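I am writing to request your help with a piece of structural work I have in hand. What I wish to show you is a protein chain and, alongside it, a tokenised description of its three-dimensional fold. Could you please explain, in whatever detail you think fit, how the structure tokens follow from the sequence? You will find the record immediately after this paragraph.
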Amino acid sequence: MDQNLQEQRKSMVLPYINKFLTIVDDVILLWVAIGIVGVAALLMVEAITDFIFYTQHSISHIISDLMFVLIIMELFRQVMRQINRHSFSLNPFIFIGVIASIRGMLLTQMKLGMGEAEWEGAVLQLGIHAAIVVALVFSLYIYSKGKPKEE
């Protein structure tokens, strides 16, 4: 009888604890989402200021900032998926990796074009970024093939 009473109490308390922790999780995710949007907005303001007060190095900064905003917004989408209780997906993280590598390629090419980078190091860096893009695209292909089709 004593064990039955303990089980009954536990079954009464657990739903409340679960609901409380779910609310805490939602609040934290909401603050993370607000922070991500704030950082993206600050980067957009910085890109706009770089555009208005144009210098020789502004183009690389503008492109870098805009690509970083894309990366941040992909993270935001993943946080929103968590808030809306959608299933987890690797796709946003693969997209983030591809965007980050393309950003690295563009910045390296610009530095090379402006004479700010050594040829050998820059070419090696471009090759590494290109290999990362190929590996991530291949990973996305494999991941997509393995996922069950949604109807």
About this structure: Helices lie at 2-52, 58-83, 91-113, 119-146. The chain has a mean pLDDT of 86. Residues 2-146 form one domain.
